[in-house]
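The methods section describes the discrete structure representation at length, but only in general terms. Since the whole study asks how a given chain folds, the encoding of that fold should be made plain. An entry of this sort, consisting of the sequence and the corresponding backbone structure tokens, reads as follows:

. . .
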Amino acid sequence: KDFLLKLAFRIKYERAKKGISQEQLAELSEVSINTIGRLERGLINISITNFCRIAKVLDMDLGILSKYDIL
């Protein structure tokens, strides 16, 4: 659970840093807005497919996005 919360924070942080709304991220990554919202709150596990789609939109290496030590 701790990992999911840190991953959720990282995705939300990177999205906000790029000035992308949840709606825009959902549209660009072809992942539902509901999934994005639940993911950013650390409520769900994410499939590798959706993880890759989100990382591509955020222009991030998967290794960086999933890094356990966020800050």
In short: The mean pLDDT is 87. The first helix runs from residue 2 to 17.
